[in-house]
Structures are given as C-alpha cells and as structure tokens.
Design goal:
The structure is a homodimer. The first copy, chain A, has about 300 residues and is mostly helical. Chain A has a single domain (about 5-300), classed as Farnesyl Diphosphate Synthase (Orthogonal Bundle), CATH 1.10.600. In chain A, about 70% of the residues lie in helices and about 0% in strands. The first copy, chain A, contains 14 helices and 2 strands. In chain A, strands 1-2 form a two-stranded antiparallel ribbon. In chain A, a hairpin with a 2-residue loop joins β1 and β2 (about 105). The two termini of chain A are about 35 Å apart. At the A-B interface, α2, α6, α7, α8 and α9 of A face α2, α6, α7, α8 and α9 of B. Chains A, B: Belongs to the FPP/GGPP synthase family.
Chain lengths: ~300, ~300
C-alpha cells in the first residue's frame, strides 16, 4: 500500500490539476477579445490557493472512489475558482475596498483600469456558468442542473453578492455579532459550503452523505472566515499577498474585534472540530476532508 | 376567428406577462439582504421595453403552438431581462459611460452609490442563472442546459462583456467599420440573437427552424443596433429616457458617423428585410416575428 499523502501534498497535487484544467478551459487571449481575456487571465492565473475547487474535488472523492469523479467535477471546480476570482476583482475596486494588492500582485484595476476590471469580473462570472453548462458526458443533466442552481444561489443576491452588499453597507458602523455572522455566512461561507455540496452532488452522494458534507462545509466555511479575520489582524502584507490590517482600516467588524485574538483562535479550532465531527457518517474515505479542516485553521495565508 | 392583433398590442400583452413573471420570480426586498434586492428592483422594474424576453416568447410561439411553451420559456425570458438590466447598470457606471439617466430615471449608481450599483449588476447576472437552472417541469433538462450554455456564451467574454470591453477600449479612437461590426455583434447582437435562439430551443424547434430563427435573430440584432445608433443621434433625451447624443460625447463610432443619417436609415431597413426573409421556412406562424422586425426599425425609443 502507498504511504498516505500529507494534506499539503494533496493540496499541491489537486491545485496543479486545477491550474491545468483552468488553462485548458479558459479561452486563449487571442482574436478580437484578447484584451478582455488577458485581463481575466491576469487575476485567475495569479497563484491563488484554489481552496474552493480543491474542496469540491476532495468532497467528491470522499463519497465516490470512481476515478472518473474528478474528471466529471473539474468544470464545476474551475467555475468555483472563476467566481471566487471575479468576487476578489470587484471587492478590490476603488468603489469597494480600494485595495492595491492581491495574490501578491497589483490588483486588476491597478493594471487594466477600473472599467476593464469591472468587465473582467463580469466576464469570469459569466464564463463560470458556461463551464457549468457545457456538455459533460460524465455527469447526468439532472446533476448538472442541480449544481448550476446551487452555485447561482450561493453566489447570488442571498449569498455571496448579498453578503458583499452588507459588508460595504456596514463599514464603519457598529452592529451586533448576529450581523457579523450573517455577513460571514453569505459573503464567504455560502460559496465554500457550495464547493463541498457540488462535489457531493456531482459524485452522486446519498442524501445522508450530502447532508453530512453540507454540515461539514458550513462549519469549514466558518472556520475559514474566522482564520481570515485572524490573519488580517496578525499577519503581514507580505505573508498574505494582500494588504494586511485592511479590515480595521475599513472599519469592518471581525471576530478579533468582537472576541480578541486568543478567544478567536479557540473559536476557529472549535469550528474546525464541528466540521470534522460532521464527517463521522462518511468513514475513512473522508480522511482528506478531515485533514483539510485542520489545515484551514493552521494556514498562514 | 379573432381579429389579428397588431404588433403593438402583442408587445404590450407580452411585456405585461414578463412584468408579472419578473415580479413573481424576483426575491422580495425583505430580510437581511433587502437593501441589495431593492437596488436590483429599482433598475429591473423601471419600465424597459422588454424586447429580449418578448422576442424569446414570440420566437417560441412561432415554432410551437402549444400554449405551454410560453410558460416553459418564462424563466429564461426573465433571465434575459435580468442580464440586459445588469449590463445597463454596469455600462452606466462612472468608470464606464458615466450616465446619469436610464429608462427615464436616475441611474442605479446615482441613487445607491457606485459600490451598491456594481453589486446590483452582479446580483442580477447571478440571479439570471439561478432562474435558468431552477427545476422546470415544462422543459427537458437537456434543453434547459443548452439554453444556459447559449445564454452564458452570448453574455460572456466572447459576447456581450467582450463587446463592452471593446466599446470602452476604442472610445475616442478611429477604427475601421469591421471593428464597429464586431462591437455591435458582440455587445448588443449576441444577446438579441440568443433571445430568439433560446425561444427556439425551449420550444423544441427542428434544426431547420432553429437555423432560420438564428439568422433572423442576427439580422434583427443588427437592425436594432443601427436604430439605437440613429436614435442616439436624432432623438431627444426625453424621448429616449436616457442621455441622447451620448455616443458622440464619448467619441464612439456609430453607423451615422460612418454613413450619415439617411444611408443609416436605409441600412436599418435592409437589415430588417434580411431578418424577415430568413423567416420564410417558418410560414404564417412567424407573422409576429415578421412584424417585430418592422417595429424595431420604426421604434422611437
């Protein structure tokens, strides 16, 4: 038997798979739309962690050991990364967080201008749905449609976009912890949870397994966001590849602002434990998801 | 037998159907995301002409007389209007055309601010795909997926968004007529053509009928855009409900700039004739599409 892979190796291997698939799926920067396509490539191929697509693939593998599952899920996994990248481009715009640095590079609008950056985001969001809808011989049309609906809900007005609207609306205002939870759940949690869910749907998980993975995804999304808040408050800009201390500078409520650093660390670990506990019904096939929950809490960027 | 309806009555009746369906499908402006949803409602329910969804419904009826076809197509028709509205909100932004008036009202960013307007557009675009992917008992999953893919392609990097990128890139520059054609085909033509195509797909058109409708849609899209250029140059702001003379003010090439007003009128009529000729294989069921082509050329806003 092979040595079990460390989670870092799994992440590295899967993120390479995603890079290759993104490069294959994205239109090449040629022809009349080369300028627009180049501006999308700039942000998409900037070395993100690829957490969402990796989660999708690993969740699929946790409920179905058929090696075709990864191939079946790749377009959806890449669509998640396109949507995540579009949200970063728009969040960074001067009208939003006005950030100059992202993934260790100047932000999209800094390089291509505001108008082109808005359109790069629009293009990536729209292209994500093309990827999700393209004929996929490894996925039934029923499952493909369910996945598209889930992604649209998670990214839409009552998910990620709605959360971003709350985030900018409540800048520099004091609000109760329940609002922070609503913002986190919608702005970051919804798409992370969705990443796990569509892995489950694409892999044909049983309703019980799908429920377990949904619970895992929700808790993992929370852990992820708490750690994001922590890193913003404690890490350096160089470590993060984006401007550190941005939350405080924008008057945004965060877990550390509500609870202090130490209690926040505890809450992140607790959320990861909740995520791991949700995996119990899945047995040893879910080991990598289990390890991913620990990784999310220990990550440094 | 009933009197044949005039095309104006058809447009009025179908646009009322669309208004009612949009009101039914859109999330209500309540709950935590009320502010975001309200900003989407503001632009969506501002009395647009609803040309794209009407085209979709009328194209469906032209190839399939089953009264269920309209019901089957309504979510897709409404999705087209959401996508068109998002494109208007983003086009009007200060970083793009910086327009203050749209559909006879202050533009979205003028009312809600730039950040909320960017998000209102993002929300409408994402919600459109939710609408397209929701379970639809009147449409096979195969057809639903084909429709989603078509819409994503028409609205995406090599369609509407790519066209808008060209449009802003070439502002105040001189370029050949072939580039104007590329911009028109992608920025406006692609989604108009798609509106007809998805009506055909949803109604189960034969490949021959689908090809005829695609040719119709492409020619109609061209006629529509030529008339848009004409109206921008000749109508008043009051008539248009948006700032007249905007093309010239932004240094945009248009049909009148290339050909003068009279020749442009002729070209619009020719495009409408091409559209009508493409309908020949469909017979008398296509009468309303035939009349719509004439309407598009004669419209005053």
């Amino acid at each position: 038997m092979n040595q079990p892979k460390t989670i870092k190796n799994v992440l590295l291997e899967k993120s390479r798979t995603i890079e290759a698939a993104l490069a294959q799926f994205m239109p090449a920067a040629g022809g009349p739309f080369a300028g627009h396509i180049e501006s999308m490539h700039y942000s998409l191929f900037a070395g993100g962690k690829r957490i969402r697509p990796v989660l999708c693939l690993v969740a699929g593998a946790a409920v179905n050991s058929d090696p075709n599952v990864e191939q079946a899920l790749l377009p959806a996994a890449c669509a998640l990364e396109c949507i995540h990248t579009y949200s970063l481009i728009h969040d960074d715009l001067p009208a939003m967080d006005n950030d100059a640095l992202r993934r260790g590079r100047p932000t999209n609008h800094t390089v291509y201008g505001e108008a082109a950056a808005i359109l790069a985001g629009d293009g990536l969001l729209t292209f994500a749905f093309e990827l999700l809808a393209r004929p996929n011989p490894l996925l039934s049309t029923d499952r493909q449609l369910r996945i598209i609906e889930q992604v649209a809900r998670a990214a839409g007005p009552e998910g990620m976009v709605g959360g971003q609207h709350l985030d900018i609306t409540y800048e520099n205002q004091s609000y109760p912890f329940s609002m922070l939870q609503t913002i986190h759940r919608s702005k970051t949690g919804a798409l992370l949870t969705c990443s796990v869910q569509i892995g489950a749907i694409g892999a044909g998980a049983s309703p019980e397994a799908e429920a377990a993975l949904s619970a895992y995804g929700a808790a993992l999304g929370l852990a992820f966001q708490i750690v994001d808040d922590l890193l913003d408050a404690t890490a350096t800009t160089e470590q993060l590849g984006k401007t550190a201390g941005s939350d405080e500078a924008h008057g945004k409520a965060t877990y550390p602002a509500f609870f202090g650093i130490d209690k926040t660390r505890t809450l992140a670990r607790e959320a990861a434990e909740t995520a791991k506990a949700a995996l119990a019904p899945l047995g040893p096939q879910a080991t990598q998801l289990y390890q991913l929950a620990d990784y999310v809490v220990s990550r440094s960027r």
